[in-house]
Amino acid sequence: MASVTLPISISEVNSLSDEQFEAVFANVIELWPNAAKEVKRKRPFQNVPALCEAFQTYLEDITLEDKLTILKLHPDLAGRLAARGELTAESAGEQRAAGLEGLTPEQKKIMDESNQRYKAKFDFPFIICARENKVQSIIEGLQRRYSNNKEQEITTGINEVKKICKLRILDIVKN
Ligand SMILES: NC(=O)N[C@H]1NC(=O)NC1=O
After folding, report:
1. What is the best residue among 71, 77, 119 to mutate for testing ligand 1's pocket, by most ligand atoms within 8 Å of CB?
2. Closest ligand 1 atom to the C-alpha of 127?
């Protein structure tokens, strides 16, 4: 497969082979290449917003089971994978942008405890679009959203996945 040099334009997106499209958009939803397999069939796209919209619609239309699987594929923020350097490149960049690499020991303890408590209640990790937040708003979100019910948190989590997805697409395709 010919490699693709990023970023690309929307007309280049429309001209990619199916295989190239799947490879380029494989991780716009964390560790969920199935989305690109579906969305490639919706080509051609008029513009970048239409491409983003197709991924958002995909996320709305999948089964509850797939939504839960997607939520569970996300790494904890400032968690074990981050400490081991085992995040995807995308997630590592997002966590860095939010300032999560520079937590004080006290903030790290709060994050660890709050992440654990959240996961014990909902059975999936706390998800927030890190690039639209900073350490303080992430910690506040973790604590505030803990009091929601599971249905609310599935909806909120998937909405955050949509924001993460859109920013990842905008890193790939120039507007
Ligand atoms: N847990 C969680 O929110 N993880 C994600 N958030 C984000 O912006 N990138 C991620 O991997």
Report:
1. 77
2. 3
Active site residues: 74
With a threshold of 0.95, does the pTM exceed it? yes
Q: Does residue 166's CB lie within 6 angstroms of at least one atom of ligand 1?
A: no
The DSSP annotation for the chain comes to ----PSSB-HHHHHHS-HHHHHHHTTTSSTT-THHHHHHGGGPPPSSHHHHHHHHHHHHHHS-HHHHHHHHHHSPPTTSHHHHHT-S-HHHHHHHHHTTGGG--HHHHHHHHHHHHHHHHHHSS-----GGG--HHHHHHHHHHHTTS-HHHHHHHHHHHHHHHHHHHHHHHB--
In CATH, the architecture of 1-175 is: Orthogonal Bundle (1.10)
Q: What is the mean pLDDT of each run of 10 residues along the chain (175 residues)?
A: 94 98 98 98 98 98 98 97 97 98 96 98 98 98 98 98 98 92
Q: Where are the domains of the chain?
A: 1-175
Which atom of ligand 1 sits closest to the CA of residue 88?
11
pLDDT at 13: 98
Interface ipTM above 0.90: yes
